[in-house]
């Protein structure tokens, strides 16, 4: 028995243990994933809880000294002569009578003149306001009506002639004194005017013509943090008592807004309003001050005069519900638990989509995506909640809808960017690795290499032909198609050189020939050797490696493979600083995006260094309706159920654009073509009955989403400039946009730059400096991509334009003209930022944040200017000629 027992270390035992371990791996992986999700959910729920931790504040007293009372409701506005009716006013007065026996009004126009009569029903005393402005006819009317009410209504206990009329500079001090003296001579109750505390200090003579000092002390407007505001009010009250020792003091406006812009350390929030008011009214009660809390009810109509914050000074909202608990702890967002649950649900839905095919991701990748999903979900919920606290107009609803769509779009793009990062960094093994087949292979079919050419420098094309002649492959042909080149001096030398290279090289010159590059390639398909099984395509500036066919063609031994693609690469990346930046930017797509796409058989076919199975090429042909016939053909290959192989080893190097304008034209063509393809294949990409697999649809849509985001960013820039212009022209009426307008695009910008700097170092193998160069080059194309997306959305076709090669550098002014649109927008954004700083100063965080947003928004345009300037620098003499063989 003992002799038959296996040692625990025997090979069979190890195999059994390994099998048991593998069988338990899925459950262990699920358990670990669940733990991570729960931990991150707990983290973000904890953040919600931390932000909404209860804060102790004194309970609201049974009685306060008084409320400022404006009874306007939704859609009512004294500036449009729309006033509440008596029943609405009566309802408001009944509610206020439970907390005070004093109210203050501001005008006697319209039905506001009924307030003293209605106030008597509830035992309320009225401090009657007369609105004084630069309209003397209205002033006279208001004064006459107020005198009548003061002399006939028992509820009127004092009259206030004017509210901040001197502060608004709508009247002179002498004229106001004249009004004060007149009203005092006509009524028996005390008379005063109501101004900000510093106006009383500026015009102390007002005290001689007033029966009491009615001062506004509003720390929010003076950038005082909430925690210091109660003491600020008491200090100003003491100053006024010292200045007017023989006059009674009335703090005719004290309050704090619940929403709106920040002013220095003063944050307009519901929690700060609750803490401040509950603390202040108890303090003022204890010290025996008379005061009016501004105000009883929110008044959205004030936005036009005071900015967005003007709507939110009420203790009650527009629906007559208290905006905060009058007793017990204060919580910033009372509904935070519901919002936290909503953010968890949104995060889990996003995560479920991201991890549908995430089996190859290591745990770090799944953890990263979980964190991003929860961060994005929480941000979206917070944005939605914050915007829901605003009072709605047709304009705000429109803006809110656009903001919501924009925020959702940013969230989607952010998730796709994060997904690519995770799959590039934390994939265990590549699911579809296609390494070069370097050993001997029995599969060596004939290859027909097609070289499209249009108006290219003959010497450059000869270098391409020389490299093809050196291919180490037994059976291939080269067909060069020159389409529409008019100058015989350009194409005839190439024709002669093909004849010199022998019968393997055939030259075709056709003019006219329609259909762009795709039309030229279709033209030579019938001329392809009948026994060729593979069609390969390279651009006329590419010098291929001798092993290209030998290492790549054997992949076609798999009958399911229809396309074999090698990356684009360039041999002139060290020729100039401009090309160094371009080269760094190009590499990212081929060493990051294409690698992750290949795992799901979803690469973007590009028109050089590509091979297509001959029978598939004959079946599908090149499209002549799009300027990106290569990517379009690749999508149709997938629609037919074929597969593509991508090997990220470089087997050919071409030439990059020599000038910034050519660099932009090339990217414009790619971006415009992408939108053409999305429109032309909309049913396949977005429809329900599609032959594309889920991963293929995802990558084609997600891969082009960042370009679409660039297109939409034009509208953000335009809106930012218009809003900034309004802030400069009418600074008192237009506040900086709410932070929720700027945070999503800024967050996406920061994430994308961080992703580039990280991935280029890790996956492309460049240093931080080159990664930064790639970011600059990529940013420089943002405006070009945006225009291409918009053109693509609203047009069906544009002329094909080639990317010229071997052009000489040009002067500074020409380079500046190449980036004139970007420079113009950059200067507008800089001017807007400077104008806001000069007009509004830098008093508060939201102004600083908006200026920062404008400056960040200008970075892509600055990058374009830098790239244009770099492209204008002369090339070093030793680098003027490109290499004649691949490096």
From TrEMBL:
<keyword id="KW-0472">Membrane</keyword>
<keyword id="KW-0812">Transmembrane</keyword>
<feature type="transmembrane region" description="Helical">
    <location>
        <begin position="368"/>
        <end position="385"/>
    </location>
</feature>
<feature type="transmembrane region" description="Helical">
    <location>
        <begin position="772"/>
        <end position="794"/>
    </location>
</feature>
<dbReference type="InterPro" id="IPR050321">
    <property type="entry name" value="Glycosyltr_2/OpgH_subfam"/>
</dbReference>
<keyword id="KW-0460">Magnesium</keyword>
<dbReference type="GO" id="GO:0005886">
    <property type="term" value="C:plasma membrane"/>
</dbReference>
<keyword id="KW-0808">Transferase</keyword>
<feature type="transmembrane region" description="Helical">
    <location>
        <begin position="391"/>
        <end position="415"/>
    </location>
</feature>
<feature type="transmembrane region" description="Helical">
    <location>
        <begin position="30"/>
        <end position="51"/>
    </location>
</feature>
<keyword id="KW-1133">Transmembrane helix</keyword>
<dbReference type="InterPro" id="IPR029044">
    <property type="entry name" value="Nucleotide-diphossugar_trans"/>
</dbReference>
<protein>
    <recommendedName>
        <fullName>Beta-monoglucosyldiacylglycerol synthase</fullName>
        <ecNumber>2.4.1.336</ecNumber>
    </recommendedName>
</protein>
<feature type="transmembrane region" description="Helical">
    <location>
        <begin position="738"/>
        <end position="760"/>
    </location>
</feature>
<dbReference type="GO" id="GO:0016758">
    <property type="term" value="F:hexosyltransferase activity"/>
</dbReference>
<dbReference type="InterPro" id="IPR017853">
    <property type="entry name" value="GH"/>
</dbReference>
<feature type="transmembrane region" description="Helical">
    <location>
        <begin position="849"/>
        <end position="870"/>
    </location>
</feature>
<feature type="transmembrane region" description="Helical">
    <location>
        <begin position="823"/>
        <end position="842"/>
    </location>
</feature>
<dbReference type="Pfam" id="PF13641">
    <property type="entry name" value="Glyco_tranf_2_3"/>
</dbReference>
<feature type="transmembrane region" description="Helical">
    <location>
        <begin position="704"/>
        <end position="726"/>
    </location>
</feature>
<feature type="transmembrane region" description="Helical">
    <location>
        <begin position="336"/>
        <end position="356"/>
    </location>
</feature>
<keyword id="KW-0328">Glycosyltransferase</keyword>
């Amino acid at each position: 028995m003992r002799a038959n027992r296996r040692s625990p270390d025997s090979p069979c035992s190890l195999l059994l243990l390994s099998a048991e371990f593998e069988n338990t791996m899925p459950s262990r992986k699920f358990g670990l994933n669940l733990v991570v999700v729960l931990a991150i959910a707990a983290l973000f729920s904890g953040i919600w809880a931390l932000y909404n931790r209860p804060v102790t504040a004194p309970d609201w007293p049974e009685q306060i000294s008084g409320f400022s009372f404006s009874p306007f409701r939704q859609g009512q506005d004294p500036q449009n002569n729309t006033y509440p009716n008596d029943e609405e006013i009566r309802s408001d007065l009944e509610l206020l009578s439970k907390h005070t026996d004093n109210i203050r009004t501001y005008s006697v126009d319209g039905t506001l003149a009924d307030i003293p009569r209605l106030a008597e029903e509830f035992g309320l005393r009225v401090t009657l306001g007369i609105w004084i402005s630069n309209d003397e006819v209205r002033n006279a009317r208001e004064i006459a009506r107020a005198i009548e009410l003061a002399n006939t209504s028992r509820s009127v206990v004092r009259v206030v002639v004017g509210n901040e009329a001197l502060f608004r500079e709508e009247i002179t001090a002498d004229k106001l004194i004249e009004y004060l003296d007149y009203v005092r001579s006509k009524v028996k109750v005390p008379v005063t005017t109501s101004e900000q505390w510093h106006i009383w200090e500026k015009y102390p003579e007002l005290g001689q013509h007033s029966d009491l000092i009615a001062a506004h002390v509003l720390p929010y407007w003076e950038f005082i943090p909430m925690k210091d505001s109660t003491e600020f009010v008491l200090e100003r009250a003491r100053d006024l008592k010292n200045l007017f020792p023989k006059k009674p003091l009335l703090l005719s406006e004290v309050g704090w807004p619940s929403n709106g812009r920040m002013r220095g350390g003063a944050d307009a929030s519901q929690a700060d309003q609750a803490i401040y008011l509950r603390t202040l009214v108890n303090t003022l009660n204890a010290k025996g001050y008379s005061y009016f809390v501004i105000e009883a009810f929110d008044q959205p109509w004030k936005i036009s005069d005071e900015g967005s914050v003007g709507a939110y000074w009420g203790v009650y909202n527009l629906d007559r519900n208290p905006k905060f608990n009058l007793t017990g702890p204060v919580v910033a967002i009372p509904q935070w638990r519901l919002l936290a649950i909503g953010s968890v649900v949104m995060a889990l839905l996003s995560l479920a989509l991201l991890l549908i095919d995430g089996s190859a991701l290591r745990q770090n990748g799944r953890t990263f995506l979980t964190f991003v999903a929860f961060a994005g979900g929480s941000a979206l919920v917070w944005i939605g909640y914050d915007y829901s606290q605003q009072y709605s107009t047709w304009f705000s609803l429109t803006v809110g809808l656009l903001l919501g769509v924009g925020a959702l779009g940013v969230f989607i793009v952010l998730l796709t960017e994060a997904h690519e990062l995770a799959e590039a960094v934390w994939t265990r093994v590549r699911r579809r690795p296609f390494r070069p087949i370097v050993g001997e292979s029995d599969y060596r079919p004939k290859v027909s290499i097609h070289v499209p050419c249009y108006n290219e420098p003959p010497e450059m094309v000869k270098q391409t032909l020389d490299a093809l002649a050196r291919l180490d492959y037994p059976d291939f042909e080269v067909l060069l198609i020159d389409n529409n080149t008019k100058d015989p001096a350009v194409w005839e030398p190439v024709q002669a050189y093909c004849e010199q290279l022998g019968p393997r090289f055939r030259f075709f010159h056709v003019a006219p020939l329609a259909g762009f590059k795709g039309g030229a390639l279709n033209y030579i398909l019938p001329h392809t050797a009948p026994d060729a099984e593979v069609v390969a395509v390279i651009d006329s500036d590419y010098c291929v490696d001798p092993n290209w066919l030998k290492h790549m063609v054997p992949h076609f031994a798999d009958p399911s493979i229809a396309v074999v693609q090698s990356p684009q690469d360039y041999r002139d990346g060290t020729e100039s600083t401009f090309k160094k930046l371009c080269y760094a930017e190009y590499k990212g797509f081929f060493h990051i995006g294409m690698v992750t796409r290949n795992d799901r058989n979803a690469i973007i076919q590009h028109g050089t260094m590509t091979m297509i199975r001959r029978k598939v090429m004959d079946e599908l042909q090149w499209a002549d309706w799009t300027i990106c016939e290569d990517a379009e053909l690749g999508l149709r290959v997938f629609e037919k159920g074929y597969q593509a192989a991508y090997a990220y080893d470089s087997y050919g190097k071409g030439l990059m654009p020599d000038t910034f304008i050519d660099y932009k034209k090339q990217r414009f063509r790619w971006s415009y073509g992408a939108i053409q393809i999305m429109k032309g294949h909309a049913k396949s990409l977005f429809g329900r009955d599609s032959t594309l697999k889920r991963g293929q649809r995802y990558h084609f849509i997600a891969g082009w989403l960042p370009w679409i985001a660039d297109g939409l960013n034009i509208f953000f820039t335009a809106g930012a400039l218009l809003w900034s212009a309004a802030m400069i022209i009418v600074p008192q009426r237009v506040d900086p946009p709410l932070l929720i307008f700027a945070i999503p695009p800024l967050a996406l910008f920061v994430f994308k730059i961080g992703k580039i700097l990280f991935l280029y170092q890790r996956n492309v193998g460049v240093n931080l400096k080159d990664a930064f160069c790639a970011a600059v080059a990529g940013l420089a194309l943002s405006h070009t991509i945006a225009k291409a997306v918009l053109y693509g959305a609203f047009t069906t076709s544009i002329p094909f334009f080639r990317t010229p090669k071997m052009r000489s550098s040009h002067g500074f002014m020409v380079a500046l003209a190449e980036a004139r649109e970007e420079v113009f927008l950059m200067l507008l954004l800089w001017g807007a930022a400077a104008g806001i700083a000069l007009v509004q100063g830098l008093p508060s965080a939201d102004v600083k944040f908006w200026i920062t947003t404008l400056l960040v928004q200008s970075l892509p345009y600055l990058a374009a200017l830098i790239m244009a300037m770099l492209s204008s620098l002369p090339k070093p003499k030793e680098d003027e000629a490109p290499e004649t063989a691949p490096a």
